[in-house]
Amino acid sequence: MAILALLSVFVLTWLATRFGYQRKQRLGTAEKREGRQASQVLANLATATICALFYRFFHANPVWLVAMAAALAEAAADTVSSELGQTSQREPRLITTWDHVPAGTDGGISRRGTAGGVMAAAIVGAVCVLSGIVPARQFTVVWAAAVIGMMTDSLLGASLERSRILNNDAVNFASTVVAAGVAILLA
User: Fold this and answer.
1) Three-state secondary structure of the chain
2) Rounded Cα distance, 11 and 72, in Å
3) Residue 112, phi-psi category: left (phi > 0), alpha (psi -120 to 50), beta (remainder)
4) How far apart are CA 117 and CA 115, in angstroms?
């Protein structure tokens, strides 16, 4: 039932992208009408796909399903946090210096965005438990790994993306890898 987990990621990110869309248009940070590019989707879903393949081809070790769930939860958390954070009336702060930055700045975080990302990670984690992908005892691992991945995304955005060493797709991919890796370590 992994399709339910994937569907939850798509629904959460679609809703968050549309939330406050007019404000995001005024700020110049709104997602394009034609949607995300294939490279963005791949960057967010490749790690989960690789984990699912490892589960399938390496003796059905359930740790790979926990890692897959964490990667999916991180992808949702990151997108939801970014999209909701841009709708906040308060200026976000750069995660590395705590300076105020304009909405949409790589590495900028806000209370609204962070809370939304934490909730998105919990929702995807819950879907993974309820659909039988991971046991209930692994929910906290999935959720915590996703939140750590989301924060990693902000740190990489503030440092490597702002300095143009990595692009957004690379940061998103790296963050899902971190979430999956943390899940493997904790599971």
Assistant:
1) CHHHHHHHHHHHHHHHHHCCHHHHHHHCCCCCCCCCCHHHHHHHHHHHHHHHHHHHHCCCCCHHHHHHHHHHHHHHHHHHHHHHHCCCCCCCEECCCCCECCCCCCCEECHHHHHHHHHHHHHHHHHHHHCCCCCHHHHHHHHHHHHHHHHHHHHHHHHHHCCCCCCHHHHHHHHHHHHHHHHHHHC
2) 12
3) alpha
4) 5
Q: What is the pLDDT along the chain (187 residues), one digit of tens a residue?
A: 789 999 999 999 999 988 887 777 677 666 766 666 888 989 999 999 999 999 999 889 999 999 999 999 999 999 999 999 998 888 899 999 999 999 889 999 999 999 999 999 999 999 999 999 999 999 999 999 999 999 999 999 999 999 999 999 999 999 999 999 999 999 9
| Predicted TM-score of the model (pTM) | 0.94
